[in-house]
Design goal:
- This protein is mainly beta.
- The protein has a single domain (about 5-135), classed as Galactose-binding domain-like (Jelly Rolls).
- The protein is built from no helices and nine strands.
- Strands 1, 3, 4, 7 and 9 form a five-stranded antiparallel beta sheet that branches. Strands 2-8-5-6 form a four-stranded antiparallel beta sheet, with no helix packed on it.
- β5 and β6 form a beta hairpin.
């Protein structure tokens, strides 16, 4: 039996949530198929989402309570703005557990600029990944 690698996705959140210090963290549970491919050097899972902020802010991501090394900072010069922006983050697939429930966490960084917490609105979170399928 031959195997194919197919692209797939999971809608993590359809709608808006806000991180403003109360709360400063939002967790999502995602069930991944056992056939989930953790990725290769050139083909990694991708987390896609939209965000908006008009205050200096810092966004971090955790996958299963482990830092995903995604650290996005916004200030007046780096892109704090009043328009929605689409973000794509390539992730280390080894942080995921195929065939299990996985947790994706968005965190608002503390004391980013001048001891302010900031505020970020996030929407339409999608996890893009590959999986092996028998044909």
């Amino acid at each position: 039996m031959a195997q194919l690698t197919l692209s797939d996705y999971i809608s993590v959140k359809d709608g808006v949530f806000k991180l403003d210090g109360t709360p400063n963290r939002k967790d999502f549970q995602v069930d991944l198929p056992a056939t989930f491919v953790k990725g290769t050097k050139n083909a990694k899972p991708i987390l896609q989402f939209r965000l908006i902020t008009d205050k200096p802010s810092k966004l971090m991501l955790l996958i299963n309570q482990t830092n995903a090394n995604v650290d996005v900072q916004f200030d007046e010069q780096l892109g704090a703005h009043k328009h929605w922006r689409t973000m794509y983050e390539l992730l280390d697939g080894s942080l995921f557990k195929p065939g299990e429930t996985n947790e994706i966490s968005f965190l608002l960084g503390d004391q980013v600029f001048d001891d302010t917490v900031g505020e970020i609105k996030v929407s339409d979170v999608v996890l893009l990944f590959q999986q092996k399928v028998n044909v």
